[in-house]
Each structure stands twice: as structure tokens, then as C-alpha cells.
Design brief:
Shape: elongated
Largest sheet: none
Helix content: over 70%
Order of helices and strands: HHHHH
Number of domains: 1
Strand content: under 5%
Mean pLDDT: 90
Radius of gyration: 19 Å
Number of helices: 5
Length: 165
């Protein structure tokens, strides 16, 4: 009975993790990782594969940390790639934090864009260049979502692969 409950909890956490990759307020990959972890405490991981599955968990723990950190860094990188200056980069970084604190999910999406755009304008750049830097931060956000979804779908795949053995 406990195996079924842990497996169901694992599946639920994986689903919440996938949703969390799109909704910025929910930390998708860490939640999905805990879903994947649930399977280790069941009899569904056969003894001959237990060591491999535990090694896979260590790898995904590292991937989860990297993807979570990159989720905050990639919008700033996008700003730079689209011609943003140091001011735009700092504006995008500040926009992530301020947006997250004051405006929740919408703030995390729009914060880097508005932060980069406004910082570029304040620093004296023209509107077109400022918009381009803001757009770069938005592209960075989209890349971050893609990275999180990739990691979370891989965790989901390995969970169900192990469950099917």
C-alpha cells in the first residue's frame, strides 16, 4: 500500500514540476526531482537497478541545481546578447528580483524585460536599443523555461522507465 502511495505522490510531484516550469512561482525542477526521489523508497525499483537509479538521482540533483540557477542568469545573458549595456544587464537582474517579490509570476516574466528596457532608457540609450535589450531578456526567459522543461521531462521519463521495469 505504501509503495502505491509513494508512487502516486511521485507522479503528482512530477506533474506539479512540469506545471512549475511554465508558472514561475512554482520551482518546477526541484519539485520534479522530489517526485523522482519517491520511487527509491518503493519496491518498484528492482534491486539490480537500485544503484543505477541512485546514481541517476545524483546526476539529476546536480542538473536541478544548475537549471534552477540558470533560470535566473539566462534573462541577463539574453539582455547582453541583444546589445544590452551593463545598465541593461543590471536592470534585467533587478527586474527578476523586483518582479518576483512584488508581482509574482507575471513579475518574473515581465520584470527582466521592463528592468532592462528602463535601465537602458535611463542610461541614455534610444528607445529602439532599449526595446531590443528588453526583448533579449524575454528571450532569455523563454530559454530558461525550455531548460527547465527539458530537465523535468527527462526526470519524468526516467521515473516511468524505472516504474515499467
Amino acid at each position: 500500500m505504501m509503495d502505491v502511495l509513494l508512487t502516486a505522490l511521485g507522479i503528482l510531484l512530477l506533474l506539479i514540476g512540469i506545471i512549475g516550469c511554465i508558472l514561475p512561482l512554482i520551482p518546477g525542477p526541484p519539485i520534479a526531482f522530489f517526485g523522482m526521489l519517491m520511487l527509491v523508497f518503493t519496491r518498484y525499483v528492482s534491486p539490480e537497478y537500485l544503484t543505477n537509479y541512485k546514481n541517476l538521482l545524483w546526476i539529476f540533483a546536480l542538473v536541478t541545481i544548475i537549471v534552477t540557477v540558470l533560470d535566473y542568469v539566462v534573462p541577463v545573458w539574453g539582455t547582453k546578447q541583444f546589445g544590452g549595456t551593463r545598465a541593461g544587464t543590471w536592470g534585467a537582474a533587478a527586474g527578476v528580483v523586483i518582479g518576483m517579490i512584488f508581482f509574482g509570476p507575471l513579475g518574473i516574466i515581465l520584470g527582466p524585460f521592463l528592468g532592462a528596457f528602463l535601465a537602458e532608457l535611463i542610461s541614455g540609450r534610444d528607445e529602439k536599443s532599449s526595446l531590443r535589450a528588453g526583448f533579449g531578456s524575454f528571450i532569455g526567459f523563454i530559454l530558461g523555461v525550455g531548460l527547465k522543461l527539458s530537465a523535468t521531462f527527462l526526470m519524468t521519463y526516467y521515473f516511468f522507465r524505472e516504474l515499467a521495469r
